[in-house]
Amino acid sequence: MAASQRSYLDYNATAPMRPEVATEMARVFLLPGNASSVHAEGRAARAEMETARERVAALVGALPKNVIFTSGGTEANNLVLSPSFRHAGKAGAGLLLVGATEHPSVLAGHRFAPEAVERIPVNAQGTVDLTWLKARLEAAEGPVLVSVQVANNETGVLQPIAAIAALVREHGGYVHADAVQAAGKVTLDIGELGVDALTLSAHKIGGPKGTGAVILASDRIEIADRLIRGGGQERGYRAGTENVAAIAGFGVAAQIAKANLSEEAERLRSLRDEAEARLLQILPEVVVFGAGTERLPNTLAFAIPGVKAETALIAFDMGGVALSSGSACSSGKVKRSHVLDAMSVEPALAEGALRVSLGWMTTKEDVARFAETCERLVETLYKRKANAA
After folding, report:
1. Who's near 323: CB < 8 A, 6+ residues apart?
2. Of 85-89, 293-297, 319-323, minimum mean pLDDT range
3. pTM score, two decimals?
4. Burial class of residue 58, CB neighbours in 10 A (0-12, 13-18, 19+)
5. Alpha-carbon distance 180 to 214, whole Å?
6. CB 353 within 8 A of CB 340
7. Long-range pairs for 340-348 at CB < 8 Å and ≥24 separation?
8. Could you give the C-alpha distances from 60 to 47, 53, 182, 250, 314, in angstroms and in order?
9. In angstroms, what CA-CA distances link 66 with 32, 51, 62, 197?
10. Are the CB atoms for 47 and 251 separated by under 8 Å?
11. Which pairing describes strands 67-70 and 85-87: parallel, antiparallel, or unpaired?
């Protein structure tokens, strides 16, 4: 099937690279200098990086000097979630509290001992239990590091990050927010959120794969235990010669995302709502996860009762629609979502979970193709059931 006859609706896994990003990267790839060199060629490479740093910082209302480039969101999360994360002159955290619906790079990528990690429960809509969090913070001895994502990658559910951060600060703790899925889809300001660190990934906003960033709220924040040691690149937080072209591409993607944020969010919300309405019209029994709370404007997670995700994914793919059964970070396997388990979704229903995620190339035609394919899938399913009866 030709690309023009297919609809890519899996932006939460990765967004297609924007043409402006590819053009910028092609130009920077040809620059010969190492960004750590003092000669003119090295200074030119460094200038490309600093321009990108300014653009990425602007996307989240941060200072450029507090942007640390990494190989992606996973490395960024792994770097931050260390017992050595602290404000200068203060003690590091002895306990890590993570949302039960966090990305695997948080749940499995932190550097705390297993006995020093606890999961914050969520309600049926997927938002964290603030009452539980408050009680746990009050009972803790010493500083606590709390990690909660701004938006869930599977359901699109938005967390009350500012309220969480205020609670944690009140009890002398530190706050990290994984903003990988939220960046470019909702407004982010590190100061208004009140967190100590945000993490980002370029390929979710139309930039290159393999580039991300840690954004610190202040240069008074320290992470003593570094993941990649060696030279002094990225203020010593991340050794190794920088991927200047990819970083430059990240900067362009961030600049475009910020410039178009409000208009694009409204456009995507309209398309998402249309897809959801068509879905419920086709089969009112469809369950939309997180429907009763705030979600990303581009994300629709649902299940058709009685249909397994594997069956549906094949049907959609054959119908020219690329979507997902949840997180794309599980080695290509279709398995039940820990996110839906944490939301107390019935196992049989969770096994049928699908995710539609829209982005900068999505059109009304794509939504129509999704709805038509869904209608054929439902018709086929119920024909089989009727014949079997």
Report:
1. 9, 10, 313, 316, 354, 355, 356, 357, 370
2. 85-89
3. 0.94
4. middle
5. 10
6. yes
7. 340/154, 340/155, 340/289, 342/100, 342/101, 342/119, 342/121, 342/122, 342/126, 343/101, 343/122, 343/123, 343/124, 343/125, 343/126, 343/155, 343/289, 344/124, 345/289
8. 21, 11, 11, 14, 38
9. 26, 14, 7, 10
10. no
11. unpaired
**Structural domains in the chain, sorted by start:** 3-16+261-383 (3.90.1150.10), 19-259 (3.40.640.10)
* Torsion sign (Cα): 111, 115, 117, 121: positive
What is the C-alpha separation between 370 and 313, in angstroms, rounded? 12
Q: Residue 302 forms beta bridges with which residues? A: 288, 354
Residue 383 has pLDDT above 80, yes or no: no
Q: Which amino acid is located at 137 in the chain?
A: L
Phi and psi at residue 212, in whole multiples of 5°?
Answer: -150, -170
Predicted confidence (pLDDT) per residue in 1-41, tens digit: 555 689 999 999 999 999 999 999 999 999 999 999 999 99
Burial class (CB within 10 angstroms; exposed 0-12, middle 13-18, buried 19+) of 229:
exposed
**Active-site residue numbers?**
329
Total count of residues recorded for the chain: 389
Specify the amino acid at residue 132: W
